[in-house]
Design the sequence.
C-alpha cells in the first residue's frame, strides 16, 4: 500500500537555533528542494526566490496556478535591495515600524501586481533566510486546508512535497499576517486583516483620521468637518487643502444618506466662519470608514447608539467612538439660519475645547 513520503524533520530551538542544522537545511533548500519552516504567524512552505523552476515547483505543491504571486520572505532589511530598486518614504516608515513582524507589504516593482514582502518575527526563519537568500513562500497547506500552526500539521498536509521540514515549535501569533498594498498616490488598502490594524499602520505613517457622523450628512456633520479642517489649518499654518500632506484626514458621513450637497444654510454659515462646505456631498457611513478612523465623533446620542449597535463586540471601533459633547448637538434641519449659527457655534466650541488637542500631532 502506498504511503506519502515523510521528509526529514529538524527540531530547532526557537530562540537559539543550532547554526549547523540551519546550514544543513539551507543546503537542501538552495539545491532546489522545498522547505517547511516556522514563522510567528503560521508554518510556511518555501523555496529560493529566483531559482529556476522554483515558482512552478511551489505552485504545484500548493495546487495553485503558477502565475499566482507568492510572498517573498526576507531575513533582514538588507535583502530588500535585491527585490526593489526604490522604496518610497511612506512605505519605508511602515517597514521600519513593523519589520520583522506579521505584516506583508506589497511594494511597487514595475509590474502590475507588485511584489509582496514579509520579514518574519521568527528567529529560525530569519536566520535560515540569511543563509539561503530571500524565499518565495506560502502557508504550508494544500489548497483549501487550514494554514498549520505547528510542524506536525504542516508535514501531514504537504510534507510529501518538501525536501526538509524545520520544527520550531508552535506559532506564537497563530494568525495570518496583515497584507497591505500602496497605490501610486501613497494611499494604502488592507487586503487581509491580521494582528496589525489599519490604525496601527496610520500611526506609523504619522496620520490621524477624524470622522464625524450624523443622520443625513447634510447639516451637522458637514459643518463639523468643515470647522475641524478650518481649525486644524489655522493651527498648522497651512491652507485646509494641504492638511492631507501633513497626515490629517477629516471626513463626515451619514447613518442614512440620501446623497446631495450640504444644506444651503450650512454652506452659508460655514462661509461666515471662514470654513468651506460648498463641495460637500453626503455619503453613507460604512464599516470601512469606522475601521480606518482614529477618532469617531457622533453628533447626537442616537448616532452614537446606532454605531454601537452595528459594531457590537468590535472593541477597536468602540474604543475610539465618542459623542462630540456630553449632550449632543440638536438637529437644525428645517430651522432658520440662526439655528444653524447656534449649532455651528456649539460644534466649534466642542472641537476647540474637547478634541483639537487630541487631534493635533505633537
Sequence:
Amino acid at each position: 500500500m502506498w504511503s506519502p513520503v515523510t521528509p526529514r524533520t529538524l527540531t530547532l530551538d526557537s530562540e537559539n537555533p543550532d547554526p549547523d542544522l540551519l546550514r544543513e537545511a539551507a543546503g537542501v533548500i538552495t539545491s532546489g528542494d522545498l522547505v517547511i519552516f516556522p514563522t510567528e504567524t503560521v508554518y510556511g512552505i518555501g523555496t529560493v526566490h529566483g531559482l529556476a523552476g522554483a515558482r512552478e515547483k511551489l505552485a504545484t505543491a500548493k495546487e495553485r496556478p503558477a502565475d499566482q504571486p507568492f510572498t517573498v520572505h526576507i531575513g533582514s532589511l538588507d535583502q530588500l535591495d535585491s527585490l526593489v530598486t526604490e522604496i518610497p518614504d511612506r512605505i519605508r516608515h511602515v517597514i521600519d515600524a513593523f519589520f520583522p513582524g506579521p505584516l506583508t507589504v506589497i511594494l511597487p516593482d514595475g509590474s502590475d501586481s507588485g511584489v509582496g514582502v514579509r520579514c518574519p518575527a521568527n528567529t529560525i526563519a530569519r536566520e535560515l533566510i540569511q543563509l539561503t537568500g530571500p524565499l518565495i513562500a506560502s502557508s504550508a497547506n494544500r489548497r483549501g486546508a487550514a494554514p498549520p500552526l505547528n510542524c506536525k500539521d504542516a508535514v501531514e498536509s504537504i510534507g510529501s512535497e518538501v525536501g526538509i521540514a524545520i520544527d520550531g515549535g508552535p506559532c506564537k501569533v497563530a494568525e495570518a499576517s496583515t497584507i497591505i498594498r500602496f497605490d501610486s498616490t501613497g494611499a494604502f488598502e488592507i487586503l487581509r486583516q491580521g494582528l496589525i490594524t489599519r490604525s496601527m499602520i496610520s500611526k506609523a505613517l504619522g496620520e490621524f483620521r477624524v470622522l464625524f457622523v450624523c443622520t443625513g450628512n447634510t447639516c451637522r456633520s458637514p459643518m463639523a468637518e468643515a470647522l475641524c479642517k478650518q481649525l486644524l489649518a489655522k493651527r498648522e499654518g497651512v491652507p485646509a487643502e494641504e492638511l492631507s500632506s501633513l497626515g490629517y484626514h477629516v471626513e463626515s458621513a451619514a447613518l442614512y444618506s440620501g446623497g446631495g450637497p450640504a444644506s444651503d444654510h450650512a454652506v452659508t454659515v460655514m462661509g461666515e466662519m471662514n470654513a468651506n462646505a460648498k463641495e460637500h456631498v453626503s455619503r453613507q457611513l460604512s464599516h470601512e470608514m469606522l475601521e480606518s478612523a482614529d477618532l469617531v465623533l457622533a453628533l447626537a446620542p442616537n448616532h452614537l447608539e446606532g454605531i454601537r449597535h452595528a459594531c457590537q463586540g468590535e472593541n477597536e471601533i468602540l474604543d475610539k467612538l465618542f459623542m462630540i459633547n456630553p449632550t449632543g448637538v440638536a438637529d437644525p434641519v428645517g430651522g432658520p439660519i440662526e439655528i444653524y449659527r447656534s449649532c455651528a457655534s456649539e460644534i466649534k466650541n466642542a472641537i476647540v475645547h474637547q478634541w483639537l488637542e487630541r487631534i493635533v500631532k505633537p
User: Anything to note?
Assistant: The first helix runs from residue 19 to 30.
